[in-house]
Every structure is written in structure tokens, then in C-alpha cells.
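Regression test attached.
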Amino acid sequence: MEIDINRLDLEFQAKIDSGKTIEPKDWMPEKYRKTHIRQISQHAHSEIVGMLPEGNWITRAPSLRRKVTLLAKVQDEGGHGLYLYSACETLGISRDELFEQLHSGKAKYSSIFNYPAVTWADMGAVGWLVDGAAIMNQVMLTRTSFGPYARAMVRICKEESFHQRQGFEIMLSLCKGTAVQKHMAQESLNRWWWPSLMMFGPRDEESTHTEQAIKWKIKLKTNDELRQQFVDQTVPQIELLGLELPDPAIKWNEERGHYDFGAIDWDEFWRVVGGNGPCNRERLSARKEAWEKGAWVREAALSYAEKQESLREAV
Amino acid sequence: MNKSLYDYLILLGDSPLILGHRLSELCGHGPNLETDIALSNIALDLFGQVRNWFQYAAEIHGEGKTEDDIAFLRYEHEYRNVVLTEQPNKDFAWVIARQFYFDAFHYSLLTQLCESRDERIAAIAAKSIKEVTYHRRFSSEWVKRLGDGTEESHIRMQNAIAHFAMYKGELFEETNVEKEMFSAGIGADFKLIKAQFESFTNEVLNEAGLEIPQIDWTQRGGKQGVHSEHLGYILADLQYMQRAYPGMQW
Amino acid sequence: MKKEWPVWEVFIRSRSGLDHRHAGSVHAADAKMALENARDVYTRRQEGVSIWVVPSASITASDPEEGGELFEPAKDKVYRHPTFYDLPDELTHM
């Protein structure tokens, strides 16, 4: 029996190595199922928690055009969460269970959303930096081994590029505007820069799961590789905006062919991941409250559907 | 400037503006994801309509006025939305009751405006009616789900309908501008709107097992610029950036 | 254990003439809501002219374990493919 499982494991990995996709009803190692439930649900939770920092600026958007594009973006994030929950559910877990994991604090979501969005410029910085960082991961994932996850990511990637462009355009308007607007933009960049770098996770040497993740095509590059790529592509964008670099240690290194940058405050990283960031409690309680307050609504809809069904059957 | 036409466009745009504002407060806080997305869609549709009405109004006004000047820089008494739209998101039943009454009115209004002698108004109405047909369907289905769902949802929905019944009267109040527009073949027949509204809403409420409230009087004043206490807070949010950072491009 | 809204699979015909393609799933309490949710979630960018929703529980799927007997035999029967037949180059319209 044990030999059989090993053989199945090997065949399974060979399938992935040959570029085949794993679908929900295929045999899969229990570890694969569990890892994907964790990975996909965390991604989904990040999307819906991510609606909160930006959602709170919709009513205060400074123009009608900004209002509708921000609302559309936040709505998209809800939609992305939905695609991902749907993909996760194919692995044999219910939406209710997934929310229970989020609300109880058992499941994680991207730590970046534990930071507050306190100025309008943050709408620019978040769209530009946070979505920019997310896109880097997301493009990789369109080729991941688990079919429903890969297909959800294809959908998401199509919609994501508008998000980053919208954010950058907000920054551009501010930087081309008055001194007080430019100051708002600079201040926002300064605040969101380090948390954005932290989005890529701990240093490679402290990152567990990486090897397995690469084998299952959840990761194609390591945390540090992606982080470096992000810095390299973003620094020229900062310069285009005419803003000051948020990190004085950023410097082009001709030898490496990359930008050098300063040390991340890993204490802050672990503290926020561990639940003690500025907004962790608020974010969770907002989601919990929405879900709990909505219980009677969901029950009512089910009850109505059942009644209608009985009426139809009685005819 | 054709002041009557301008005032009329303000009337057409302000209610969707304030209602859209209330709906956008809900983004990320809905009873579930699917409903959240649906409500955001409605808000987006309404803001799209607002932009159409206000862009036209801005052109009529001339002197470089923009849709944003109109949306963000008026004083409280210059907004002409019905007070129904200012009501808060107390619970989902309130959200649906508010939407249901507004959609029933909005649908009838826009259907008629599709035949407006003013080509621009007719075009905007033609585009908007498709969206509002969907809104009306959405809100009336939820009235039925909540009215005939569980005991709790029935009570909440009944209370919400009872509350909002006081507000629907203002929807049929014809201001002088609207009388003028109707005479000119540009606006809508309020008698017809009211008749269609009552017929449609009564049918849905009956189907939902909800009592049709008998009300003696109407909350009103919005169309004359006399609002509830809610509007002040709404405007504080809505106008904040434009007031705190005046005269800038965003 | 509270009851959840059931899951519905969503199929969208994106343009006239094309097949309905599986787009994903939504939760809904009934069929009408499923259609509307599908429309709100999957056709926001005008990606649809027609939507089908089916309760996931109603879908019968082939068992991947039976892939051998269901699908492999077709691989051997190459005479179903036009390229199997060796025909002269001068032959046209075929």
C-alpha cells in the first residue's frame, strides 16, 4: 500500500513536470490538496480584505471619474475573491468554512492590507505598488499546476492591469498638480514603499514551503528574486513621477545589474504578520461583522427558494 | 443659459447621486460577495447616469462649468434629490426597501423620457433604462425573498417598507420645472408615473406577503432643497476633497 | 451546521455563434439569483450574450480514473483523422 502511494506521488509529479494540469477530481496527494486550499484561500481572503482600505475612499473620491474607477476596481477585487473561493471550493471545502478560517484568525491574508489608507494619494500608491506587486505573482500563477487556480488567475490578470494603471495615473495627476498634491503623493509613497517590499514575504533563507511550491508550480521565482524584480521595475517609475526615492540606499549596481536597496525592518514584518499591525483587528472585525450581519439575509434567501421550490412541486 | 433645462437636469441627476453614495458605502460590507458585487454594479450604473446628466447640465450652463463642479461644489439647499435617497443603510432590508421604491419610480420616469423631445435626454434615458430595468428586477426580487423568507426577514422587511412608505410621496411631487418640462414635451407625466408605481409596487408587496402601509403624510422637501439631517453628513464626505483642496485637478 | 447557498456552475456564450464556455461558479439561493449573480460577476466587461447556470450537484462528470477506457481507445483509431489517408497531391477539393 505504501509503495502504491509513493508510485502515485511520483506519477503525479511527473504529470505536473510534463506540463499537464491537475483538475479537482484527479487523484492528488493529501499535501497537495491541503497546500492548495491554504494558498488559494489566502489569496482569496487577501482580495476581499483588500477591498477595505480602498473601499473607504469611494465616498470621498475627488471627482466623479475617480469615484467610478475606484468603485469598479474595488468591485473587481470582490470578484477576484469570488473566482478564487470558487477555485478553492473545488478542493472539497465550503465557502462558509473558508470564512470561518478567516474570521477566527486561523487563515492568513496578505499583510499589506493591515496598513491604513489615510489620504487620497494612498489610492494611487496602493493601485500602483500593491497591485503592481500582486501582478508579478499573478502572471506566474496562470501557469500553475492546479487547473481551477490557473484559470482563475487568467481571469484575474486580464482585469488587474487596469488596476495598476489607474493607481499610477492617480499618482501622475498628483505629481503634475500643486505643491500640496505632490507632497501628498510623496508622503504616500514613503509610507507604502516598505510594506510593499514586505509583500513578497520573508527572505528566502527564512521561507519554508518554497521548494514544494516550485515543484507544484505555485512559485516560479523565490521571494527575494521577485522582490528584486519589483524594485528594479518600480524605481524608474518613481523617477518618472519626479518623486524622491523612499529609500536613500537605493542605488544602481552596475556589476549586479540590479538596484541595491536598504534593509527591511523584519521585526515590523513579523509583528504585522503575527497580528499586531495598525489595522489587523479592524480588518477582521469588519469582515466578521459583514458576514454575521448578513446571516439573516442569506437564510431568508434560502428559505424563500425552498418555499418556491415546494410551490412548484405542488403544481 | 436655459435655466429650466439646467434645473431639470439637476433634478434628474441628484437622486441617483445621493442613492449611489449610500450604495457605495456598502462596498466590502455586503451580506455576501455576490450581493456586494451586485450592489456595486447598481452604484456604478447610477454614477454613470449622474455623469451623463451633469455633463449635459454643465454644457447648458457654459462658462467652463464641469460635471464635478455640479456634483461637488453646491451648497446643501442647492441639491434636489428626494429625501428617500438620503436614508441610511440601517440594515439590508432598508437598503432593499429604499432601492425598491426608487427603482419603481426611476423605471417609469426613464421609460417616458425615452420619448423626450430633447434628443440628449432621450438618448441618456435609452441607455439608462436598460440598467434600471435590471435594478428594478433585482430590488423587487429581494423584496420577495425577504418578505417571504424567514420570520425575521419578514419582520425586518415589513418595518423597512413601513418606514420608506413615508418617503415615496415625494417621488410624485411635480415641481414647477417639471411641469414646464412636461408641457414642453421634454419631461414626464407624473400622474402616469404614480399610477405605474402604485400598480407595480403593490403587486410585488402582495406577492411578498407584505402589508401595504397606509400613510397619512409624506416626508418631503428634498426637491426644494430642504433636506433631512443626513444630507449634511453625506456632503461632508462627498465634498471633502474638493473643499479641502480647492481648485485642483485630480 | 447552517445551510449554505448552493454552488452553481456558470457557462457563458461570449459572442453570437460561439459555444457556451465554463467561466467558473457562483453561490446563489435560487436559479434566478444564480443567473443575476453570474451576470454581475462574469459579464461586467461585456463578455456575454448568453448565460447558463447549472447547480453543481446536477453535473455528472467522468471519473478521471476511468480515463483509460473512456478516452484512450480514441488515440488508437487514427483512421478517424483525415491525415491517415494517403491521397495523391493532384487531387483537389478533398
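Expected vs. actual: identical. Chain C has one domain: 7-84.
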